[in-house]
Structure formats: structure tokens, C-alpha cells
């Protein structure tokens, strides 16, 4: 496989490992018990242990990797090399009075790079190669590689032993559940008799999805597969909740599938979940940093849904849960993507169904609006929908108004349709978004809104976001986010 030369990348990895090892060993020498300095030195050691194991794994599977992935990782590794070299130079000139600030910068550098690297890490799972499986099996103690191994196992085509039947939950266990509505959301919080609390993500099944025994069988299979894969996720990493199981609802007598409810584990905490729509409609204001962090979490969730080989199809603020993590009104909290009402396998048959509610349609690409859908649904359509949501987050305003009585309306600027609406969104992203979020964020939104070939007004060619299995989509999408 052509790409970045193995010797060059091996040299870069070895140099990073050398620098990192020296830096960690020197900072470990400061054994000042109970001090902030010791805590930061330990943070460096913990971060480096994780990074070094992933670098070693990357080195061993390098020649099995896709050329585009090699090129992306080579650029990411060069950033790490610069950060480590900078920390190495600082260490040589260190004096105790500056130690705390130097340690803080070292921790920050490693953690920032780790986030960038982790964004690309699970793309390895899309590559079919025995060398990757072999190396994953050898590394059982690394949490990141353990998560990769679990997900790799369930997404492989030959994972027939995962039929997903163990994800099906009996309806009777939830019939007496106490249900708590969450304003402006598609999901609910439930508490069952045993005292456990979950998030219920309901979905009615349209007639077209169960029009035949084959269609019903395919839908049931996809539901089980998604539930099985979501069981393996790390919520803090993927920004997807861990699936507890699925409750199918059948029509009495005929046993026709009417609905399926995904049941998700609710992370422990004392704070009530909200929807992103509720947050956008509230009077709360957040800093630039908090809004960017929220947008990054949102993009991460979409990225991982695609890695799991599904398209979401209904990306909008009502399907996004925000969970406060501490009693600080200035912090948004954690974002989790829900709303799997119309998902399907990435390679599955698309039904080309529109939506009668225009408050849903405005998040769809022009090719997917109205009653006469002209295009099949692809991963790029999710990226377009993400772009609309990121526009709302950046401008910190809702495209949909609620009058307090359950009625909704679109704000005047969102009442266009099709290509006119897309052009309006692009205009907002180009002219207003830079003023509130900066040029880099604005360019990311523009690229999301321009991701489809029929309206690729700003990307570098009609095929930039196109490929058959979603791998190059992931590469290009990450590059757009990083390069801004």
C-alpha cells in the first residue's frame, strides 16, 4: 500500500516516544507530596502512558492502514513532535519558580493533542485487516484499545455470533415505569419499579418500513445491530449513551411491529437532562469556549455514528440531550446524540421518505426536502444537518419558535425552502458567524453545509466528501474541522 513511508513514520513515532519518556521521567523526580505540582506531574504521566501505547499500536499496524489515513496521522504526529520538543526545551531551562506553569503547559499540550488524535483513532475500526485484529488482541490492559477491540468485534461483517437478541427487553418490565417528559425533546426520562432511571428514545414505525416480511426483518435486524453496538460505547468518548436494550411494541393479534423504544443508561448525577432545543430557547448565555466545546461534542457524536456504520437521518436539536455535570450555570455540560427514529444501516436501502413537518425539514439537505425526494440518504446528509445545528449553536439562537402552548413556528429567516434556504444558511455562516465565533468555526459550518455534490459551493470538488464506505468521509470531515 503506497502512502507515507514506514521508515519516516517509525522515526517520528520513536522520536515522540523518546521525548515523551524523558519528559515524564524528569517530572517524576519532583516528588512533592500533596502539592499541585505533584498532581500535574501525575497528569503528565497518565496522559503519556495512554499516548505511548496508542503510538506503539499505530506503528505496528501502519502498513495495513489506508493511504489517506496515513497522511492524516503523519500530520497529527508532526504536531505531537513539535509539542514534545517544546516541552523538552522548557524542561532543560526549568527553574523551580516556573515549574508549575511549565507543568500546566505540558499537561495542556498533551491533552489537546490527545483530543485531536482520538478523533481519528476509531477510524481504524473501519479497515478490514487481520493485522489490526491481531494487535488489538495483544493489548488487553489499555482502556482505549479495549474499547476499540469491543467495537471492532461487533462491526466486523463476520460477527455472526452477535445476533443482538440479548438486547431485546420484555415490554412488561417497562409498562409501569414512571415517565418524565423533557421539554422540547423527542426523548423522555423513565424510572422503573426497581428504582433504576433510564432515557427512553421512542420511535413509531411507518407502514413503509414494515411493508413486507423482508422489510420488517431488515428493520428488526438493524435495531438489534445498533443496540448491540451502542452497548459497547464509552459515553464520554463517543457522546452517545450506552444502550441498555430495546423494547419492541407489537400490534395485539397481528404482532405487526408498531414501534421500538431504545432504552439508554443515564449517567449518574444529580442534574436533570435537557434538550439542545430547550437550551437554545432559554435565556442562558455561554462563553465562546463553552459553545465550541458543545459543537465539538456534537460533531464527535455524528462521527462515531458513522464509524458504527449507520446514518442518523434526523439530526436536529430536539434529538440532542444536554446533561449538566456540575452546579455551575456557566458550564453547558455533556452532549449526547439521541433520536434514532429513522436511522438505518449505512449500506441499507433508503426509502426516500420526506417529512410533513417543516420544522423537521429545515435540517434536511434540499435533496431530501419535500414529498418528492430526489436523492438517497448518505452520511453527507447527516453532515449537512450537523452544519445547520452548528449554525444555531454559533449564533446561539433557535431557528424554531415555541409559543408556550405547544405550537411551533419558524423564525422569518428560516421560512425559505430548498436551495434558497441552504443559501440563506450559508450567508449567515459566512457573514454573521465569524463575528460571534471566529473564522475557523464559521468555515467548519460552511463546509458542513456544502458537503453534498449538488450544492458543493465551497468545497474543492464534487467528490470531496464522497466514498462508498464512509472512511474518506471521516478523513475529509476531520481535516475540515482541524484546518478550519
From TrEMBL:
PROSITE patterns: PROTEIN_KINASE_DOM. It comes from the Eukaryota. One of its GO terms (molecular function) is ATP binding. Residues 176-472 form the Protein kinase domain. This is Protein kinase domain-containing protein. It comes from Penicillium chermesinum.
